Amino acid sequence: MKLSRQFTVFGSAIFCVVVFSLYLMLDHLQLDHSKNPSNNGQLSILQEKIDHLERLLAENNEIISNIRDSIINLSKSVKDGRGGLEAGNQSRATMPGAVLTPPLVLPVQPEDCQFAARSYSKSAEGVQMLEVYDLLAFDNPDGGVWKQGFDITYEGHEWDQEPLQVFVVPHSHNDPGWLKTFDDYYRDQTQHILNNMVVKLHEDVRRKMLWSEISYFSKWWENIDVQKRDAVRSLIERGQLEIATGGWVMPDEANAHYFGIIDQLLEGHQWLEKNLGVKPRSGWAVDPFGHSPTMAYLLKRAGLSNMLIQRVHYSVKKHFAAQKTLEFFWRQNWDPDSSTDILCHMMPFYSYDIPHTCGPDPKICCQFDFKRLPGGRISCPWRVPPQAITDDNVQERALMLLDQYRKKSQLFRTKVVLAPLGDDFRYTEASEWDQQFQNYQKLFDYMNSHPELHVQARFGTISDFFAALRVTADVDPLTSSSPLLPVVSGDFFTYADRDDHYWSGYFTSRPFYKRLDRLLESYLRAAEILYSFALSSLKKHDRLNDFPSVENYKLLTEARRNMGLFQHHDAIAGTGKDWVVIDYGTRLFHSILNLKHIMVNSAHWLVLKNKGEYSHQPSVPFLQMVTIGSKRNTLNAIVLKCVPVCLRVLVVYNPTEQERLTVVTVYVNTPQVRVQTAAGHAVTAQVSAVWEEPTQASSEAYQRLQSKEGGVKQEVRLAFVWYGTTSNRDKSGAYLFLPDGEAKEYSPKRPPVIRVTRGAIFSEVTTVFEHVTHSLRLNNIQGVEGQSVEISNTVDIRGEFNREIAMRITSDLNSSDRFFTDLNGYQIQPRRMMAKLPLQANFYPMTTTSYIQDEHLRLTLLTAQSLGVASLKNGQLEVIMDRRLMQDDNRGLGQGVQDNKITANTFRLLLERRSSSDAREQVRPSSFPSLLSHISSMFLNHPVIPMAVGLSYGHLHTAPYRPLRSSLPCDIHLVNLRTIQAGEGPGPSEEAALILHRRGFDCTFASRNTGLLCATTWGKVSAINHYFICELFSLSPSSLKICLLTVMLSFSLFLSISSICISLSICYLSIISVFYCSCPIEQQA
Ligand SMILES: [Zn+2]
């Protein structure tokens, strides 16, 4: 037995920002009765309000009845004399000191429920992906030369009236890390591509090039001289070079959280604006392994009009080709009109390489990849080499290529055809530029000089192509609609490129790094917000020069870029070489340390009571975040040491826009600990041992949870299962999941060790198996975090051979074949388990949330890291937690996944009673989490951040810093408050970007005892303007220019990111100043 000398204090700290104003608000809304349970007069006011609402919203019966139920329950509890403090699933601990009591009934405005409750109406020619999946047989017949398609024919006279327009778009796909690290690729390939580009595009104004990764472009830019920069600017001005998408990377669309996607897009777009004055118009995503509508939405919000996608299931591509729906307006599932529509081109064939882009026959198209001319380093696998174009063969070669273009155009509704011309890291050598551009020019010249061919072929950028498409398809620029093009809603997961090769493995591959990324994202957001406030406050006090603002901004920029780099589709996906993974991991870890540095620096200024005492001393920091390695997932738990007796001051930073009752964990070196608030009130604390090794053994089973939700006992069973891999030649690897049938139950050789912890704040059962240390924790607090069970699994499969371990949750819910997973933490996509698909096809990405439900209950699994999830049986949810695979899966990586680490996975399991459900819901293509689920997920992903005041600073006084007067409305999330870089130099400007997200939520859940400390207010913050005024704004309007009206207009991503705001820009632009804040810091002694 080994018991560490460390102990843990779990203080239940209370972050009441301004309790008073919150209550004012509640009084105003007339819904708070926990405060005054015997007041029947207020109940009658409530009744009046309900009557009024009924008149207003006669059509919205379910919501009204929901509220009425709450009122009836409330009346009962008042009569029973029970009042507000009703027990949840556990008895509540009483907490001395300032106790913030959540309202008994969540004050939700019925109008705010309408978005999710709205009935779904599909447009006449709308394509819904869930319905497409119903239609398709998912057979895989041989299609001839176009193996996964069909034979394409044409008459030959189709173009007599309107010629075929061909746009050949040269591109080079540069992965920011895959087989080589980012820096190695840059040194060996990318810099040469870009250097040659400047020379070779200038040789002929008809030549074009597309570039998309700003991570590479900006690195190159730093290394080139003024003349070259001017040359690049002129290429852009002349339309020869187009920057597509303009993100830092081409992000993974399955695992990346929308915070990360937005941030890397901002970083890229900001760079472009500052250095080139360029705004991207079209998106270009040829390589992410499946496509998410979140990306479509964010690109649209970032001001792009068009986008291109490539890796879509081959059966879906074939169906879309047959229906001629490969060009469409991509609309969000939840969009009632066309406001989210973005024009999208889906590439029809197998790959984005040249053999698969000129037309259906790769054997022919390969002959038009002039890098493969005989004598070169690569050749055509179809064994017919390209021929250099000469006067003798030009006719024959042009007609051969034109035949492919014509066939390709048969899959589309207009006479505009796109033919990308490129591949991974193409155009490195000057000779390759000559080979491609000279030979193609000869072909174009021939085609264009023969009017009887009815073709106009040329080099183009992707926006040249879309511009022609828009004209031909008669796209209305105002409404983004076309009489010719359909509307498509839904997503393109799970991707299969051939046979039963589904790319569901990468939803989990390298989970350690997926978790590390999420941690970095939460630190980045927290540091951004704190830094923005500190800068503003320092300026107000005229102390900016005493603060390392530029040095910290450089670190912040580096962290943004490291996080942005990791959103790349081979990075967060876990599909890079081992040493590339280490390179990414080092960057992530390095930036986590730097962000802590920024947070303690910023918090130092903000919490100091007497600003006159401020002095920045890097060698003796005022605040510290010293952590210890721990097997539990407590990377942000800090160490407070006392020898022998002392008083330590703890500053706790709540980085969310919600007040919260939460548990704060701190490591101490003595069990003799008392915790007090700054005012001297005792805070309930629980001291627990930190175990380094398991001790007592027991053979009893543990994996059983019971919940008494709504008076009904609901049993939820938790188990672990193993997947192996098939005995066929093709086996599971970093990308692919190819299991050997259904999972087998985990049966450990030794009985597990079980540890039980009980206390005033939490109770926990930890079960130690050979491969997983599994903890279930119930927090005994009144806040949101007391509403769900925390699950923590520390997985270690380093000794295994071709195995994957999953957590399976089995319940009595009658969910049938339906389940729900989130897309990028941004929206929910309904799913169906389909028996006609192989097992691996039924796994989907889960960034933050998945759930199953029946008429009465919903069981939600919230996650703090992206993983693959499925619901293979009625009532089940199953998450793959780690994979160890000994071989390559033939997608170019050239290795298996054997660099497994001990990985902490953290989840929360939430069981909610539904007050109503209807049959329409079964066909509705959208679904929404409850408010409790939204905020539980936010708290899971954004834990409070404790910092310790250094021992030598015990004499300095601290004061809470509260930029918000109360919580923001429950449905509004502050995505980021991000200081913008100055026009010149690497330091900060006086502008910051405020990004808000109004979240759609489902009101058909119990609104009693949710633990939430917020309300909803019709999505209008102006309605509660007078309840909280941002200190910074009101005290000093000139301190930090209030939020970027100018930037926002020129860069629409800054507009609040809203799933549901109906009159978005107007209502939110008017309240910018109020939203300009969010980081209550509460201190404790
Ligand atoms: Zn790639």
Automatic annotation (TrEMBL):
The keyword Cytoplasm does not apply. Its EC number is 3.2.1.114. Residues 501-588 form the Glycoside hydrolase family 38 central domain. It is found in: Golgi apparatus membrane. Signal peptide: none annotated. SUPFAM superfamilies: Families 57/38 glycoside transferase middle domain, Galactose mutarotase-like, Glycoside hydrolase/deacetylase. It comes from the Eukaryota. One of its GO terms (cellular component) is Golgi membrane. Pfam families: Alpha-mann_mid, Glyco_hydro_38C, Glyco_hydro_38N. It catalyses: N(4)-{beta-D-GlcNAc-(1->2)-alpha-D-Man-(1->3)-[alpha-D-Man-(1->3)-[alpha-D-Man-(1->6)]-alpha-D-Man-(1->6)]-beta-D-Man-(1->4)-beta-D-GlcNAc-(1->4)-beta-D-GlcNAc}-L-asparaginyl-[protein] + 2 H2O = 2 alpha-D-mannopyranose + an N(4)-{beta-D-GlcNAc-(1->2)-alpha-D-Man-(1->3)-[alpha-D-Man-(1->6)]-beta-D-Man-(1->4)-beta-D-GlcNAc-(1->4)-beta-D-GlcNAc}-L-asparaginyl-[protein]. GO terms for molecular function: carbohydrate binding; mannosyl-oligosaccharide 1,3-1,6-alpha-mannosidase activity; metal ion binding. It is a single-pass type II membrane protein. One of its GO terms (biological process) is N-glycan processing. Keywords: Disulfide bond, Glycosidase, Golgi apparatus, Hydrolase, Membrane, Metal-binding, Signal-anchor, Transmembrane, Transmembrane helix, Zinc. The chain crosses the membrane at residues 7-26, 1044-1077. Its cofactor is Zn(2+). Pathway: Protein modification; protein glycosylation. Belongs to the glycosyl hydrolase 38 family. Catalyzes the first committed step in the biosynthesis of complex N-glycans. It controls conversion of high mannose to complex N-glycans; the final hydrolytic step in the N-glycan maturation pathway. PANTHER family: ALPHA-MANNOSIDASE, ALPHA-MANNOSIDASE 2. This is mannosyl-oligosaccharide 1,3-1,6-alpha-mannosidase. It comes from Paramormyrops kingsleyae.
